[in-house]
Design a protein that fits this description.
Largest sheet: 14 strands, antiparallel, barrel
Shape: globular
Helix content: 10-25%
Order of helices and strands: HEEEEEEEEEEEEEEHH
Structural class: alpha+beta
Strand order of the largest sheet: 1-2-3-4-5-6-7-8-9-10-11-12-13-14
Number of helices: 3
Oligomer: single chain
Length: 197
């Protein structure tokens, strides 16, 4: 009985290590170092009553406390708030699919009609349906829903959000308008992981 248990435990551990190694190595590559200062990016910041999340976004990196993502070709991989991230882009860079943590993620993104950015799909066990314009950020990302309006004097979006198991919160989001002029996949991934944090 003991030997059966040991074999079962060894099999489970081996499977887990294989999955983690696949995500971390991303096609055999080692996780990248933080980008050099010359590649300093645009700042995206989400503030809640109890926490602040801030990241720098470049075309190939997203870097912040407890969060780093890197792009290599069509793959985006790294870690976000203790969860591994590995998603692949389609050839048109309009769809992303893969894993965030242990849950599947699959969503489309890009400009739609007069909307600079719209995300639609699933992530973290919940729907993704988010609209981002120069006037507002509204919709749902995973288990969190947002209703934010842009405040020109403060140069940020302000409003409320509710996440599963928590009451409504007043939050603010700093999102440089130039990031909406040409939507990059790394901007989309930064928003996705931040807004469901």
């Amino acid at each position: 009985m003991r030997s059966s248990y040991v074999r079962l435990l060894g099999c489970a551990l081996g499977t887990t290590l294989f999955a983690l190694g696949t995500v971390a190595s991303a096609q055999g590559q080692t996780p990248p170092e933080r980008p050099p200062p010359a590649e300093a990016g645009r700042l995206i910041r989400l503030e809640t009553p109890t926490q602040e999340f801030a990241v720098q976004v470049t075309p190939t990196f997203v870097i912040g406390p407890d969060l780093w993502l890197a792009r290599d070709g069509d793959d985006i991989y790294g870690s976000a708030f203790g969860r591994s991230v590995f998603v692949s882009l389609d050839a048109k860079e309009e769809n992303a699919a893969g894993l965030i943590g242990t849950l599947p993620a699959s969503f489309t993104f890009g400009p739609r009609e007069d909307v600079p950015l719209r995300l639609e799909g699933v992530a973290s066990g919940g729907p993704v349906k988010l609209t981002v314009t120069t006037r507002e950020v509204t919709g749902t990302v995973g288990l969190c829903s947002y209703a934010l309006k842009y405040q020109p004097e403060a140069k940020r979006y302000e409003g409320s959000r509710i996440c599963a198991g928590t009451p409504w919160q007043t939050v603010s989001l700093v999102l440089p308008p130039e990031l909406l002029e040409k939507v990059e996949p790394m901007t989309v991934m930064a928003l996705e992981v931040l807004l469901e944090a």
